[in-house]
């Protein structure tokens, strides 16, 4: 009986020493999400503001987290002249693309963060756009300096899996140089105080 009690107390002590994940505050002013999409005749890019973001950190390593993207305030940065810039911004927010009136927020939620060295990660999670959720994984890098954790990575997703099929070569024929590629890139940088 003494042996069982000793084992139970030992296990309780071990579990009490295990560090629980704590949410790290993400600084939205220092963080950013840059989008990029290409067509036959070129590339467009811009930013999607971060609405909310958090990283769960335990023992100096990311264990979870999420971020919400503000689709209403999505920007186009490669075009400088009007009306081209405004027209593309408006079109991206329309039902041809992100249906922003119905779906004003897109979300990524981490389901698993694997790292062998605390710097190089494979992040797996769920990306939700237009109310459609799909699993996705991507490589990420994490650095620590001056009480701040900086996580960077590139999410690449197929827009057609989120019901964004406008001028997709997989759904429309004879598009020629009007075709828009299905792959969209999100360069994510999250800076958090830890």
UniProtKB/TrEMBL annotation:
<feature type="domain" description="Lipid/polyisoprenoid-binding YceI-like">
    <location>
        <begin position="23"/>
        <end position="193"/>
    </location>
</feature>
<dbReference type="Pfam" id="PF04264">
    <property type="entry name" value="YceI"/>
</dbReference>
<dbReference type="InterPro" id="IPR007372">
    <property type="entry name" value="Lipid/polyisoprenoid-bd_YceI"/>
</dbReference>
<protein>
    <submittedName>
        <fullName>Polyisoprenoid-binding protein YceI</fullName>
    </submittedName>
</protein>
<dbReference type="InterPro" id="IPR036761">
    <property type="entry name" value="TTHA0802/YceI-like_sf"/>
</dbReference>
<feature type="signal peptide">
    <location>
        <begin position="1"/>
        <end position="24"/>
    </location>
</feature>
<keyword id="KW-0732">Signal</keyword>
